[in-house]
Amino acid sequence: MTCQRCAILEAVRGVSSHPTADEVYEMVRENLPNVSLGTVYRNLEILSANGIIRKLGPEECKMRFDGNTKKHYHVRCRVCGRVDDVDVPSFLPPKARVRGNGEYKITGYSMEFTGVCPRCAKQKQA
Amino acid sequence: MTCQRCAILEAVRGVSSHPTADEVYEMVRENLPNVSLGTVYRNLEILSANGIIRKLGPEECKMRFDGNTKKHYHVRCRVCGRVDDVDVPSFLPPKARVRGNGEYKITGYSMEFTGVCPRCAKQKQA
DNA sequence: GTAGTTGCAAATTATTTGCAAGGCA
DNA sequence: TGCCTTGCAAATAATTTGCAACTAC
Fold first, then answer.
1. How far apart are CA A24 and CA A32, in angstroms?
2. Contact (CB<8Å) B118/A103
3. Cβ–Cβ contacts within 10 Å for residue B121, how many?
4. Is B80 helix (H, G, I), strand (E, B) or coil?
5. Are the C-beta atoms of A110 and B111 separated by less than 8 Å?
6. Which domains does chain B possess?
7. CA atoms within 13 A on the CB side of A71
8. Which residues contact A104 (CB under 8 A, 6 or more apart)?
């Protein structure tokens, strides 16, 4: 636990704003002006891999396109990344309440399932 | 509706694999070897803006970090992108069934709410 | 002393944009 | 004719990586 890692952890814990790597970098730089962005990325990765902080965000940073515009849901294979359609019978989205701030207007949600596709499941067996 | 745009639309509609922009590019190139990747991006954007195809993917392509590792859900302001915590009382994730393939193992899900934060709601009024 | 960590700079990846030339209405 | 679109190449943006110097135990 180096000085940098500790400062990065404190920065993430010290705010409730779910900062991006770059925002963490800016925060840490106020106390340690010489930290490098690379160090911030490396430590955020290590801290979240160890369950000390949580990583929010896209499993994959690529846009995908679907010729089917009817509303439906997707599963994403967490091994190879492929995306398939799923049927979800009778799903009613839950009500969400923003903590401490009633003026937040919640207008929608997005949901995606995670799994292992047949091909990757088979490879794992071997 | 140019020749390129039509080929891009057909490529997306012709597969059920939810292709990335790059995969669409490769498909279109088989018939139109001179298309440029820029054209593919531009047309995918236009087609999805017009509701002709659907864009799947992250609202934002940046990782965010959360010092709170307890399970909870988030809202993302669709104007400024900020992320806040929400409480979701008693939510049981729905059952999903993969179309035409029972061997897909679904192991989890991710859900995020969308809305407008108080700050952006106020700016919109003015 | 040695394994892990740092700062820096260059590399990667996905995507966007500027621009001059071309095509369709 | 004039606006939209194209191909190309350069620009951006987020993130990763190679490397030599350094630090903690």
1. 12
2. yes
3. 15
4. coil
5. yes
6. 1-67 (1.10.10.10), 71-126 (3.30.1490.190)
7. 7
8. A98, B75, B84, B115, B116, B117, B118
Q: What is the pTM of this model?
A: 0.91
E strands, chain B, are 54-56, 64-66, 73-77, 83-87, 97-98, 105-116
Which residues of chain B lie closer than 8 angstroms to A123, CB-CB?
A: none
Give tens-digit pLDDT for A74-103.
Answer: 999 988 999 999 999 878 889 998 877 668
Nearest CA distance, B58 vs chain A (angstrom): 6
The encoded tokens of residue A89 equal 């019978």
- Could you tell me if B124 lies within 8 Å of chain A, comparing CB atoms? no
Dump pLDDT digits (tens) for B72-112.
999 999 889 999 999 998 788 899 988 776 689 999 999 99
